[in-house]
Specification:
Two copies of one chain form a homodimer. Chain A has helices at 7-16, 19-28, 31-38, 43-50, 55-64, 67-76, 79-88, 91-100, 103-109, 115-124, 132-135, 149-159, 184-189, 196-199, 213-222, 243-260, 276-303, 305-310, 314-342, 350-412, 422-444, and strands at 140-143, 165-172, 178-183, 207-208, 227-231, 237-242. The first copy, chain A, is mostly helical. Chain A folds into three domains: 7-126, MgtE N-terminal domain-like (MgtE N-terminal fold), CATH 1.25.60.10; 140-260, Roll (CBS-domain); 276-444, Orthogonal Bundle (Tetracycline Repressor, domain 2). In chain A, a hairpin with a 5-residue loop joins strand 5 and strand 6 (237-242). In chain A, 48% of the residues are buried. Chains A and B meet through helix 12, strand 3, helix 13, helix 15 and helix 16 of A and helix 12, strand 3, helix 13, helix 15 and helix 16 of B.
Chain lengths: 448, 448
Amino acid sequence: MEQALLSNTLCDALAGAETAALRDILDEAHPADLARCLAEQEPAAVWKILSLLPAERRAEVFGYFAADLQVDLARLLSRTQLAQIMFHMSADERADLFNRLSPEQRDALLPGLAQAERDDLLRLSAYPEGTAGAVMTSDYATLPHKLTTREAIEVLRREAPDKETIYQSYVIDSERRLLGTVSLRDLILAPPKTRVEDILVHDVIYARAEDSQAEVAAKIARYDLLALPIVNGGDKLVGIVTYDDALDVVEAEATEDFHKGATVGKLDGSVREAALSLLYRKRVFWLVLLVFGNLFSGAGIAYFADTITANVGLVFFLPLLVGSAGNAGSQASTLMVRALATGDVMLKDWGRMLGRELVVAAALGLTMALAVSGVGVMRGGAELAQVVALAMLFAVMTGGLIGVSLPFMLSRFKLDPATASAPLVTTIADVTGVMIYFSIASIYLPLH
Amino acid sequence: MEQALLSNTLCDALAGAETAALRDILDEAHPADLARCLAEQEPAAVWKILSLLPAERRAEVFGYFAADLQVDLARLLSRTQLAQIMFHMSADERADLFNRLSPEQRDALLPGLAQAERDDLLRLSAYPEGTAGAVMTSDYATLPHKLTTREAIEVLRREAPDKETIYQSYVIDSERRLLGTVSLRDLILAPPKTRVEDILVHDVIYARAEDSQAEVAAKIARYDLLALPIVNGGDKLVGIVTYDDALDVVEAEATEDFHKGATVGKLDGSVREAALSLLYRKRVFWLVLLVFGNLFSGAGIAYFADTITANVGLVFFLPLLVGSAGNAGSQASTLMVRALATGDVMLKDWGRMLGRELVVAAALGLTMALAVSGVGVMRGGAELAQVVALAMLFAVMTGGLIGVSLPFMLSRFKLDPATASAPLVTTIADVTGVMIYFSIASIYLPLH
């Protein structure tokens, strides 16, 4: 028994190896590890090493590369080299890569593929990015329902080398409509002469090709599936999505939402390797947009210039008040964004969630008001303390309610709730915080 | 072919059904859907419906409940009822529930279980929360290596009903040390008289019982595994973690990090159903803690009170400057936190990431400086515009560098990088933003 080599050790070995030792490493390392090490090198160097591998293993390692590197490599390769790699890739990986090639590369590539691959490729690559269709594979096993379980296992044995999974098979009628599914486990468990139709599961959980990948992944996770069948508008089976793709989708979706939570745009692939100009572009948009929100805060302050000049001590508490409102707001929005994403909360729960937040934010606001009133007394006397405590209570409550409402509002208008990021909520809560604070101050405090 | 009922429709049907119709629904619905609908009701009502189900199905639905509801229900049940449910649960779910019971409940329960279950339960429940050991199951299939593939399939057929997966089997020696793995796919593909030892995969990817669940899930995702074997300190096989548990872990980890990104504490289970007092407790700690950070900002402002009184127009740009520094900082920290969590970036990349951020943040800062200098001229003339633009450049750059450094610093001291939440980074960036702004202002602008 031997633990898979830690990537770093493997990468160092790979970088320093002589030809003979290199071959050993290439033969023995897990393709995922090889891909990770190679990804740190220049495309030309990567290809030099890839070309040492047998064709099938080369395609496997290639399949583990990030999309960007695959495209960069594809540019270096001749039509034949690329067609050979694509021939050995799984149907879904192949379609993914094809979608990312330039129109010229696609046109050059197609004649090099066999008819069956070409048709399959064009069919799979027709689905828009982010849909179930774009991530599904056509390498699934189908079974006629009249077979006995022994015959069915025989069919699967013959077909296994070309299928992504044989643990779940699909029984379809002559129109490719899905009649049911049968697991290899049930085939093996049943007496050899049982008919497949007798152990068929009829209430199949499935998704449509135009459904989002997030929904598909959620179904796979919720029902603990190995693979989810995908049907088209005519209810015909067109592919399956396997659990390992669902894992990738869940991770990618979580990363995307996480980034959006700080107004960073969608970023495919590695942050470590991303071009600096790309990182700039993914961050600048919201940063500049939020300037306008903050200018509103500034305008609010300008409006109360007299109150401030008369009581310059007020400014001392300004960061505290707007900061706390923003923090309470981003807590609330984050809870809602994630709950909406995982399906824990739905649009119809809006009212109920607002009611709950009212109670929680009031309790938080009271705690915060107590916490700051002491400081208020010390720095400005009882009157200022009263203003600060009261403003704190209202600012935190308003922040919380904004934080809860924004994700629901976005969701209501079919926008991504994750846009209700911490910076956006903070900026909005800031404006209201400024207004609440100085409004209360101008009521309580003398102007001279 | 019939789509799984949408939860809402199912839940409504369940709530309104007469006894006969209710039985139909209970017989046909997917256990995951039933669990979701039932979770909305009171524990006593849940148990009333659960008790209508056959024992095995009852345990299956029970296994889909959130941990809190399982514990609430366990309190309602007699020792025998609970033991019966636990008998039918999978080994890992059983151990999870056992860990959450009170010491009295545990003591009452153990005598009701068979010896084998009892031993297994005590062994599995000995691992601390969050480790691979706490999520693994002992329901895996082992094979002697001398068998032929035909015999091996026969063994699996007999054992299948009790095993969580038979798609991956483990070959161990007399000391339970792992010799290799064999997939059912390879067993089926090989000619019937092949020996298992000839198709064994020897370079097994495994994890240790004390490894974190996040590491385990990452391995399963990276190597596209159906199940990952878990060994103890003596290299003996003690369990496996299956892909569906990995999916749950990835989702739970992402949720936890996402919540931490807005300083919300770790929250098991539904936000929708969580007690209000729990939500309060999960939010109040950081909210109050950050008060002190904001008081520093306030102190900074107080220090520059003369500058402000002389140029009250400066306050107009205060929210903008500190807001932008905070936003740039939370973007940078969010990118790093997620990259560290997914393994895209490691501790050794700190220097490189800082260098990259320096470039990106400088570009962002320049853009922002240009964007605000126009407003600066309009509201306060060329001199103020110069101050604001210069302060913006430095504030955004400082914010970005703080955002990159904080997750690495936390990681360096073995703390969770996700603690570098947007509110924390924003608060720290606020303080430095205030200092930078007024320092520059007091150099450039006259005090009278």
